[in-house]
Design goal:
Elements: E1 3-10, E2 13-20, E3 23-30, E4 37-42, H1 52-60, E5 66-72, H2 74-77, H3 86-101, E6 107-112, H4 114-126, E7 130-134, H5 149-153, E8 159-164, E9 181-185, H6 202-219
Parallel strand pairs: 4-5, 4-6, 6-7, 7-8, 8-9
Antiparallel strand pairs: 1-2, 2-3, 3-5
Helix pairs in contact: 1-6, 3-4
């Protein structure tokens, strides 16, 4: 059950508190003037919605007809440092979904790292239009045998993976073939940071992400 009980506005964004069975969650809306899609993106297990990729998408996508909803899971809103079990993450996402769908537009379910896993696991059940998986954690660092590929391959909807070329949770070349698209951010780590010696700048690396998502969302029917 979703109960929106607080909405505040600031700097072209609206912040909405949504009650879930896992505790209060927070949605920060970045609305397009003539929106045709909602892109809902959540954070990973070690960070929040201030991640460089999520901030960049919120800044760029609205000009292309995509409203961006950056979602803070209940554990993060509560100030906890460790994410709960996957089932609890999924529970929170399910309860947040009605607020994401309320504008009446197709919703692209997305997230980075652990948030990408949640989006993949719940996409079909929630009726997501598509999935955006940023820095999908294909396996724990150094443990390729513990693959999470089944979650990605089982999303059941059009899926875009954006992956850093040096992501210790899974480099692009480690991903199996499947019904999804994959865009590589050269030299990027799990947070899409690139070393100073790389042939692309940090700004160019972020542009690879936003350009890819703009093109992909534009192709979605």
């Amino acid at each position: 059950m979703t109960d929106v009980n607080d909405v505040t506005h600031a700097a072209n964004a609206a912040t909405e508190i949504v009650e879930t069975d896992a505790g209060p969650a927070r949605i920060t809306w970045h609305k397009a003037k003539r929106a045709r899609l909602v892109l809902a993106v959540s954070h990973g297990a070690g960070g929040g919605i201030e991640a460089r990729d999520l901030k960049a998408l919120a800044a760029v996508l609205p000009a292309h007809g995509v409203t961006v909803a950056r979602v803070e899971q209940p554990w993060r809103v509560a100030g906890k440092k460790l994410a709960p079990a996957p089932k609890t993450l999924d529970l929170g996402w399910r309860d947040i979904w009605p607020a994401l769908a309320k504008p009446g537009l197709p919703v692209v379910s997305g997230g980075r790292s652990a948030g990408a896993r949640v989006a993949c696991r719940t996409a079909t059940e929630l009726g997501a239009h598509a999935v955006l998986a940023l820095s999908f954690p294909l396996h724990p660092p150094g443990k390729p045998e513990k693959s999470r590929a089944a979650e990605l391959l089982g999303s059941g909807v059009p899926t875009l993976v954006v992956q850093g070329g040096n992501d210790p949770f899974g480099k692009p070349g480690e991903f199996p073939e499947g019904p999804y698209e994959l865009v590589e951010v050269p030299h990027g780590d799990h947070g899409f940071a690139v070393p100073k010696r790389a042939e692309i700048t940090q700004e160019e690396a972020v542009a690879v992400i936003t350009d890819a998502v703009v093109e992909w969302t534009g192709s979605l029917g």
